[in-house]
């Protein structure tokens, strides 16, 4: 409903929509559907059939790529949602509530941020997001299975704990390639 309301507002705000109204196929034929960033859709396509008076909206949801949780339980939420975890896509956009993440199947970041997580907003900026994803790719390629990932915003430090108890620290303000020389000896020693 939120998506449809946003599309209707966009169509009615157009020159054509203003004159023909929301129920006219012409409004939808001649209005380009641009999505606001706070909608959990990756893309949208509107097709119309003027003879049958049909309007078909094809929507593609954003793909959930990780779970983002506060480091400490949130006191301002209801008892059932006290953990406050959210799904995040690969652009860092919050998609909605998620279960409390733990383990290695879905990457889960525990963040010490004090601001609430709001659907449609980004949890991190682009450079930090890119660094975080490159760290996840590096860990996967290295065979290090992360069971807990903790982000400290003030310093940009990322603490990764593996299933074998190995703790690796990264700083999201630095390039991941700067860390490779220090981690390669650990990988070659067979520590997992």
Count of individual helical segments: 5
- Major sheet summary line: 7 strands, mixed
Low-confidence stretches: 78-82
Strand % is 25-35%
What order do the SSEs take from the amino end to the carboxyl end, as H and E?
A: HHHEEEEEEHEEEH
Sum this structure up briefly:
With 192 residues, the protein is α+β, with helices and mostly antiparallel strands. It contains 5 helices and 9 strands; from the N terminus they run H-H-H-E-E-E-E-E-E-H-E-E-E-H. The model is unreliable at 78-82 (pLDDT under 50).
Describe the structure.
- Strand 8 (157-162) and strand 9 form a beta hairpin.
- The chain is elongated, with a radius of gyration of 22 Å.
- The protein has helices at residues 2-12, 15-20, 25-30, 126-142, 180-188, and strands at residues 41-49, 54-61, 66-70, 86-88, 94-97, 108-111, 146-152, 157-162, 167-171.
- The protein is α+β, with helices and mostly antiparallel strands.
- The strands form two sheets. Strands 5-4-3-6-7-8-9 form a seven-stranded mixed sheet, with no helix packed on it.
């Amino acid at each position: 409903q939120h998506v449809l309301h946003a599309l209707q507002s966009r169509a009615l705000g157009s020159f054509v929509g203003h004159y023909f109204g929301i129920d006219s196929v012409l409004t939808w034929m001649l209005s380009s559907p641009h999505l606001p960033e706070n909608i959990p859709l990756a893309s949208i396509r509107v097709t119309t059939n003027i003879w049958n008076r049909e309007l078909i909206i094809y929507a593609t949801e954003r793909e959930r790529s990780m779970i983002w949780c506060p480091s400490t339980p949130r006191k301002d939420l209801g008892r059932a949602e006290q953990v406050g975890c959210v799904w995040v896509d690969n652009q860092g956009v919050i998609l909605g509530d998620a279960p409390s993440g733990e383990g290695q199947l879905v990457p889960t970041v525990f963040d010490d941020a004090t601001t609430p997580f709001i659907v449609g907003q980004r949890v991190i900026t682009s450079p930090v997001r890119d660094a975080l994803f490159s760290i996840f790719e590096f860990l996967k390629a290295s065979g290090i299975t992360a069971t807990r990932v903790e982000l400290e915003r003030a310093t940009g430090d990322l603490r990764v704990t593996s299933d074998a108890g190995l703790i690796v620290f990264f700083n999201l303000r630095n390039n991941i390639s700067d860390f490779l020389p220090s981690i390669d000896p650990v990988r070659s020693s067979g520590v997992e």
